[in-house]
Each structure stands twice: as C-alpha cells, then as structure tokens.
C-alpha cells in the first residue's frame, strides 16, 4: 500500500492554524485546514449503529485531529477488506471476523478500535408474545435477512451456545428475506418473530405496532460486534494517523454518552428517510443496558473471544486467531485515557 505523508501536527497547533474564515463543519464542527490529510473509511453498509464514525465526522473530530475523512459504504460485510488491500481506503468498519478471515488468507489485518459494543440484534413480535429467554426460540418461525447476516447467525449462536440446543431439532425455522421484509412477515403472520437490527426494531414499534421482546446482545454479554481495522503495514507506517483516527472515535463515543441529543441530530442528518419518532425510539437500545455505543474504543480480550466464538458457532469464521495477534489496543487505550466517557 502506498504510504500517505502524515504531517507532524498536534491538535493545539492544528486548531491555532485554522483560518479565521474557515467554514464551520456541519453541526458546529471545526473547519478543516488546508493541511488536513485525506483518508477514507470503508464501512460495510450504512447502518445506524455505526453512529460513532458519523458523529466524528459531523462534529468535526476527524478534522480536529487533522484528517479530511471520507466515509464510503462498501455494500457488504466482507467488502471493506478489498478496499483496504487496493488502497482505496485506510480504515475498515465492519465485523471483526472479516479481519480474521483476511489474515488467514494472507492479508495481515489489525483491529484498532471498537465501534459497536454489544451484539445489536433484537427480537420483535406481536403484542402479547412471551419471549423471556433463548429457549423461546424453540418452535418459532423466525424472519431474518439472508445468511450470513447476523440476524440469522446471532440467533443460531444463541440457541446452540447459550440454549444448548440445535435450532432445527427444536423446530426453530428461518425465513430468510430481503431488507425491509422481516417486519412485514411478522405483521401478516408468515413469521412468529423477526430478528432485526436498528432502525428496524424501532420501525416495528412505531409503524407496525409490534414490540421488541428480547435483546440477544444482553443475553450474550459484551462483545466487539463491529470493529475498525487497518492493514498491519498501514499501522506500522502511519502510527500517528492511526492514533488521531482512534482519538476522533473516542471523542465521538464520549459525546454521544454525554449528550444523547447528538445521536438524534446526527442520525437525522445521516438517515433523512427515517422518521424522527423511529430515531427517538431507538435511543433506549443505543444507550440502554446492552448499549450499542461503547463508552470507549478499547477492545477487551473477553469481548474479542465472545465474538470469535459467536462467529465459529455461526459458521462465518474460517479459523479463530488470538486476541494478541489480531488486536492492537495501544491507540484505543491512549484515546480512552484522554477522551472516554466517564
């Protein structure tokens, strides 16, 4: 990968060097200086639970750290990897298993930040449906997206690992559908329940009169559901840029926990097609008992091991690789020490 020149510049110097006439960034973010280095994030798809990267851009944190950031959706969970390998992006935001699969195949990847801190899949059903534990998947017709979406792999993992039973043997069947069709399948009776991401859980509540009856992430516990990774070569050649990138993520995560209205504001701008009522309903899941938004970008060994076990059981991981090989927590630890939500 071609190394981009990264100027030696701290935040104070950068801020002082801003032109008085620089246009303020959207939502009051800091204006970009001419010296800012361009970089690109390749995100799997445009999803609400990637909100820390959108806030980091909208509120000017990337610019404050000297990065002129572009965010591009890759169109699938595996697609950020070729973006990194081709040099069309520096940072990937997707499932950490994609970094492992790429490394197994010979492309050395390293995870540097946590973006989503719990497995963010919820069960929605018609009012009055009893769903209190993983055992309640038994005998259910479950509407999901198509494999290998986490809407199917996560309930599969939960049944096998937490419930100790085989879904098929216990009569749990999956109805794999296109985007947007799972909620309708529950509403019209083709499915008993649906496993969904946000914004779909809140759309189910506000538009279809359904209820969110179970948080699979709460049952599984903390996990690095989404990470940001780079190639080892990029990390080794651009440590300052990696640090400043993770700093911006940490700033965004802290701000989201300090002022949840930022979530509403930035989400409305990033997803103009989503009604305000849907965004408001989603807050409880983004900042609740099993919060989507981490308080810091650090990745613990327990969070990594949980996610690797999840992917192995679900069948989306070619081979598990150890935390010590796949995670460089040094950038996140420094960022957390300065910026993390207390």
From TrEMBL:
Pfam families: NMT1 (PF09084)
UniProt cross-references to Gene3D superfamilies, sorted A to Z: Periplasmic binding protein-like II
Assigned keywords, A-Z: Signal
Protein's name in the database: ABC transporter substrate-binding protein
Similarity annotation: Belongs to the bacterial solute-binding protein SsuA/TauA family.
Places the protein is found: Periplasm
Any one of the GO CC terms: periplasmic space
InterPro entries: SsuA/THI5, TAT_signal
Domain SsuA/THI5-like residue range list: 51-261
Main location: periplasm
